[in-house]
Write a structure and sequence with these properties.
By secondary structure, the chain is of the alpha+beta class. It has 14 helices and four strands. Strands 2-1-3-4 form a four-stranded antiparallel sheet, with helices on one face. A hairpin with a 2-residue loop joins β3 and β4. The longest helix has 53 residues.
Length: 424
């Protein structure tokens, strides 16, 4: 499964709400061509032709369309925001529940700050994409093509002249999309690293103070902070390079309209009212061109965030309750089952990162018996408890409880019968 297919699994629940929002967006885009058209009629038929009786009706139409647009805009923004919050709620809950199912090996290689970034910054990038970018991009594409359609009905020559900028816009958009994705990935990685560093230092503040390492930690923080700042600046340079290009292309449309459109009015190829109509449609052409760079940034940020969340979510725990052969059920029920407590380590060995932690461990503790395990720091005392609770699986040998290998037992029931007093 690809990250975007996984994301669509959450979106599917709210697809009708999204479809409603897109439908309302389409209606608003269609209504947006009305007001410039009426403005042109006012110039030609009212001001120049002197048909002043039409003015109240035309003004009423302008007000009606404006009020209708405002009401529909509120409704579609409500639809998209509701859907985005719903997707975010479901996704955050599912990812968090998956975190609780992960084994200790997962948390040994994942920093807490990175996992917090998946649940905060990356999730917010997804919410922003759903609540704003989807309808903004869709609406502006419709506005652009509706405006072009109206321009061709007024003057095909003027419309073709204004289309000259499109190839340049397409080339700039393509180049920006190729550059911005790695910039955002680098930005998110540096943010996660900074977040993890701050979290570890705040939670381990007692250790820092105990060894008087405040100055050392400040220097380390400055290094992480500098990396994040540099990543932000590099990301900003991408859109700083391309956004001015989009601005220039959008303003080029205004220049074409004023020069060639004015010339056509003088030559009486189009009326003054037609020029007013084209000028009213100009913002519908300018806005997509000016915002294209920002939307490429947001879309790439969204894709990067989904990929990072899915990469974390898709990691499966190696330590898990075994499934029965007949019905894909755990070998024990999730309900509490009392275990008498006979524990045996039978030729147990455990290694991590190609290093032996414990080996050749053999002992048996009977139910009700008190056993003390002593040894120097790092000798593997805590490892034995981790193997008994099956936080890790033994590399070789067996850990038995009541004669049953812990790898064949229900994890929840096993750990529910073990009480631990942590050393810290």
């Amino acid at each position: 499964m690809t990250p975007l297919k996984w994301f669509y699994g959450f979106l599917k629940k709210y697809q009708w709400l999204m479809i409603l929002g897109l439908f309302l967006t389409t209606v608003i885009a269609a209504l947006s061509i009305v007001n410039p058209f009426i403005s042109g009629i006012i110039v030609d038929d009212v001001i120049q032709a002197g048909n002043y009786d039409l003015l109240p009706w035309l003004v009423a139409c302008l007000l009606g369309v404006t009020l209708g647009n405002s009401a529909l805009r509120f409704l579609y923004q409500l639809a998209f925001e509701t859907a985005s919050q719903g997707v975010l709620y479901d996704m955050r809950g599912k990812v968090y529940r998956k975190f609780l199912e992960e084994d200790m090996a997962f948390y040994n290689k994942k920093r807490t700050g990175d996992l917090m970034s998946r649940q905060t910054g990356d999730m917010d990038a997804i919410r922003h994409f759903m609540a704003y970018d989807i309808y903004a991009v869709y609406q502006n594409i419709l506005l652009f093509f509706f405006a072009l359609l109206m321009l061709f009905t007024i003057s095909s020559k003027l419309a073709l002249c204004m289309l000259v900028v499109l190839p340049f816009t397409a080339i700039a958009t393509y180049k920006q999309s190729k550059e911005v994705k790695p910039a955002f990935q680098r930005n998110r990685n540096c943010f996660s690293s900074l977040n993890a560093f701050v979290q570890e230092n705040i939670s381990g503040n007692r250790v820092v103070k105990a060894f008087a390492k405040e100055s050392y930690e400040k220097e380390k923080f400055q290094v992480e902070n500098d990396k994040f700042r540099d990543a932000q600046i590099k990301g900003s340079r991408v859109w700083m390079k391309y956004v001015p290009i989009f601005e220039i292309l959008s303003y080029a449309l205004t220049v074409v309209l004023m020069l060639y459109g004015g010339y056509m009015v003088i030559q009486e190829e189009i009326t003054l009212g037609d020029l007013v109509k084209v000028n009213g449609y100009l913002w519908m052409l300018n806005s997509p061109l000016r915002m294209a760079g920002w939307w490429v940034n947001d879309i790439q940020n969204f894709i990067t965030s989904v990929e990072k969340i899915y990469a974390t979510y898709s990691e499966e725990p190696k330590v898990r309750t075994p499934l029965s052969s007949d019905a894909q059920e755990p070998s024990f029920s999730h309900g509490h089952e009392r275990i008498s407590g006979e524990v045996e380590f039978r030729d147990v060995a455990y290694s991590a990162d190609n290093e032996d932690i414990v080996k050749n461990i053999n002992f048996k503790a009977h139910a009700g018996q008190t056993v003390g395990i002593i040894g120097s720091t790092g000798s593997g005392k805590s490892t034995l408890m981790n193997l008994l609770c099956r936080f890790y699986d033994a590399t070789s040998g067996q850990v038995l409880v009541n004669g049953t290998d812990v790898r064949d037992m229900n994890l929840y029931n096993l750990r529910d019968n073990i009480g631990m007093a942590m050393q810290d």
